[in-house]
Amino acid sequence: MMSSERRPSMAERRPSIMGPLSPHVEHRGSNLMVPHLAGLEDPLPDSTPGNVDVVIVGTGLVESILAAALSWQGSNVLHIDANTYYGDSSATLTIDQLKQWVQDVNSDKMKFYENAKLHVSGAIRNGKYSSRDFGIDLSPKILFAKSDLLSILVKSRVHQYLEFQSLSSFHTFENDSFEKLTNTKQEIFTDPSLPLMTKRNLMKFIKFVLDWESQTEIWASYAEAPIATFLVEKFKLDKAQVYELIFSIGLCYNIDVKTPEALQRIRRYLISFDVYGPFPVLYSKYGGPGELSQGFCRSAAVAGATYRLNLKFISYDPITKMALFSDGSKVSVTEKVVVAPTQSSDNSMNVPEQKYEVQRLTCVVEKPCTEWFAEGENASVVVFPPDSLKSGNKQAVQALVMGSGSDICPKGTSVWYLSTTQSGPRGELDLDAALEALEESIIRESSADLENDENILQVGSNGHFVLNSVKLGQSFKEYIPREKLQFLMKLYYKQFTSTPPFEVVDPSIFDLNSTDDDRLIPGASDNAVLYTSPPSAEISYDEAITAAKVLFQRIVGSDDDFFDIDFEDEDDTEKLNESAITDDENMNMTLDTGMSVEPVEFAGEMEI
Amino acid sequence: MNTSVTSIKLVLLGEAAVGKSSIVLRFVSNDFSENKEPTIGAAFLTQRVNMGDHTIKFEIWDTAGQERFASLAPMYYRNAQAALVVYDITKPQSFIKARHWVKELHEQASKGIVIALVGNKLDLIEGGAERKVAREEAEKLATEEGLLFFETSAKTGDNVNEVFLGIGQKIPLKKPDEQSQGSSGLRINDDNRVDLAAGGPGSSNAGACNC
C-alpha cells in the first residue's frame, strides 16, 4: 500500500481476464473483487487450457495456498500433481496409499524422502480394519489459535470446508513419566506440587514474556545466551519449569536455543491461549495439512483454477514460455512455473539444496489413549526434551497423539506421530526410545487389570473390598503387561527439506530462488522455474503462509493482493464484519509471522 | 421445535454441461422459499427451505470444475448428506456418466447419503428435440440403487424445487438428543467442534488489558 512503484498486479494489467460478475454479489469497498465462479456461469471445457498465467506443480499446503491466493487475485492458474491424490508432501493418506508411497520412496520415485520402512498388521490386511479407516499425515501439524494461517483460513472462508478440534493437553516426559503441563493461570495456582515461590516466579515470567520485546532491559544482556540461562538467572525457575517452557510451551528443538527466539516461541503459545477457549492450538479433523491443502485447492477451483491430478511436469522453456506435461500436453505460460521440489522434472538443475533432515516414526496402535487427552478432546502433544530418553537424545522428540475422535483412525485405536530433527542413524534410535517410553506409559496408565486383580482387591470378612497394599506395591513394581501393545501400523521415514529447523519464521528462509531469470543452464528442464519449500520439522503451521507469500510476491510483484478478498455471508454477516475490520487494519501486515504485530490479549487476564 | 434448522451438505455431480449449476442457480434464486437472495461466497451456495415446522439449510457444493480431470478431493464427498447426480436426457453419454457417479458415491460418500438422480433439459423435448434417455431406464436405475428420481428443466424451472423438497423430506432430521452423543466414531460430534469464525481476533477478552 505504500510503495508507489509497485508492479501493477496481474489483475490490473489484464482486467479483461475477469469473468462476468455474479449478479448476486454486492460490491463492498473498492478492493472487492469477485472472480468468475467456475462452473456456475459457463460450462467448462474438457481440455486443459492452452494458455495460463501460472502453472503450479504439486498440491502440498504451500502450493495450494499459493494457488488460491493467485486465483482470487485474478490469475489464471493450472494446478497439477503427479500423484493421484491431493497434498504431495503434506498429504493425508490411507493405508493402501501409504504402501504405494513407501514403494515409491524406496524406488526413488518420490524425491527427497529416504529409508521408508512400513509394517502393516494383519488386522488391517485381513479386514478387521479397512485401509480407508485411516488418514495418515505425511507431515502432521498443529494450528496455533493466533496465527497467520488461521486468519487466512477465516478470511478465505476455507475454514468452512473443514472441521477443527481443540488441543490443550501438552505433556513433558521427564524421569520416566509424563508431566502434564501446568499452562493456565488457574492450573499454576491450583497445582499442589508447585511451591509458592515457584508459582510466583512462573507468573512473573508469563507476564513478562507476553510483552517481552519492549522490555529490552530485562533480556538484552542475554540476547546471545541460551534461554535456560536466562530463565534460571532472571526468573529463578527450576529445571522442570524451564524444560516445560522451552520444550512443551516453546516446542523448541534443543537446549541451545537463544533467549529472544525462545521467548517468541513461548509467547506464541500463550497469546493463542483463550482465543477460542482454554486451549492454545487446534487441528483439523480427518487429517491435517492434507485436508487444508484440499480446502485451499477447492477455493482456488471456485476462483477459476484448473485442477489435474496424475499429471507430471516434464519441462519448461523460458524462451518459448511453454510448459510440457507427461501426457504430451503443453501450455503457454504468461508468468511463472512454480514447482514443488518433490515433483521436479528429470534433468532439473535448479532445485534448491534440501539439506535438512526430519526423521519421522508414525504408528497406529490398538489403544484409544484417552488417558493422555483432556476431557472431551481427542489429541495431545508429548515432548521428550533432550537427554530424557534412554538413547541420550540431543534433540527433542515431539509426538502428536491423535485419537479416533479426530476421525483419522477407527474407534479403539490412535495414531502416534513422532518426529525429530536429529540427523543420521541416531535419529531413529531416539524415535525408538521415545516410542518405547510412550508404549510403557500407556500400558501402565491404561491398565485396568490393576484394579480388578483379585489378589490386590480382596473381599473382607464383612463383605467389603479390602485393598492389599503389599501386593499393590509389588504389583506396581513387577507389573508386566499381560498383553503387548498391538501396533496396527508402523512407518519410519526420513524427509529432506530446504527449510532449517527455524525458531522464528523469517521470509529469507523461503527465498531460495535465483532472482536472475535470465540465468539459463543448458540442458536443464527447469530454467526460470520457481521452487517451493517442502514442510520443515516445525510441528506448527508457522511457515506455510510466509512461504506462500514469498512466492506470491515473486510472481505478482507485491503481496498487497494476497487474499485481499471479501465475501458476503448469509448467517454471519455480523461476525464477518467483526473479523473483517481486524483483517483490514492489518492489511499492511509485514512478511513477519504476524506474531509480533498482534496486540497482547492474553495479558488482560493476568493478575498476580 | 418450530425454529429448528438442519444444515445439509449437498454435492453436485454429473458430466460437464448437463446443467448441474443451472439447476442450483434456479433453485437458489427462486422466490420459492421466503428467504432472501442466495449467498455466493467462496465456500458454497446456501439456501434455506421451510418445511412445515422446521427449516432445512442446504449447503450446496459445486464441483468447481474439479470433476473434469477426475480430481475431486475426498473432502468433496465427506459428510455429504445429499447428492444430485445430473444427466442430460438428450445425451445418452451423460447417463452412462451418471451411473459412474452413483457408483462413486456409494464408494466414497457416507452410508446414509440421499441421492437424487436428475434428468435435466426437459424443455428441449418440449421444444421438439429427441429424447435419448428413456424415463423407464432412469427409473429402473433409481429403483435398483435406491435413488430419488426427477426429470427437470432448469430453464423453465419445471420440477426443480421438487428435487430439493424431495431430498428435504428424505433427510432424517437431527433430534436434539442425538447431537450430544459425543465422539462416537464416525458421526460428527458437534460438541467438540471449534468454529473459527466465532472466536478469533477481537472477539474475546480484548480491551480488558490492565497491565
Automatic annotation (TrEMBL), chain A:
Residues 1-15 have a biased composition (Basic and acidic residues). SUPFAM superfamilies: FAD-linked reductases, C-terminal domain, FAD/NAD(P)-binding domain. InterPro entries: FAD/NAD-bd_sf, GDP_dissociation_inhibitor, Mrs6. GO terms for cellular component: cytosol; nucleus; Rab-protein geranylgeranyltransferase complex. One of its GO terms (biological process) is small GTPase-mediated signal transduction. Residues 1-25 are annotated as: Disordered. Belongs to the Rab GDI family. Substrate-binding subunit (component A) of the Rab geranylgeranyltransferase (GGTase) complex. Binds unprenylated Rab proteins and presents the substrate peptide to the catalytic component B. The component A is thought to be regenerated by transferring its prenylated Rab back to the donor membrane. This is Rab proteins geranylgeranyltransferase component A.
From TrEMBL, chain B:
NCBIfam families: small_GTP (TIGR00231). GO terms for molecular function: GTP binding; GTPase activity. Residues 174-211 are annotated as: Disordered. SUPFAM superfamilies: P-loop containing nucleoside triphosphate hydrolases. PANTHER family: PTHR47978. Pfam families: Ras. This is LAFE_0E13058g1_1. The keyword Endoplasmic reticulum does not apply. Keywords: Nucleotide-binding. InterPro entries: P-loop_NTPase, Small_GTP-bd, Small_GTPase. It comes from Lachancea fermentati (Zygosaccharomyces fermentati). Signal peptide: none annotated. The keyword Nucleotide-binding applies.
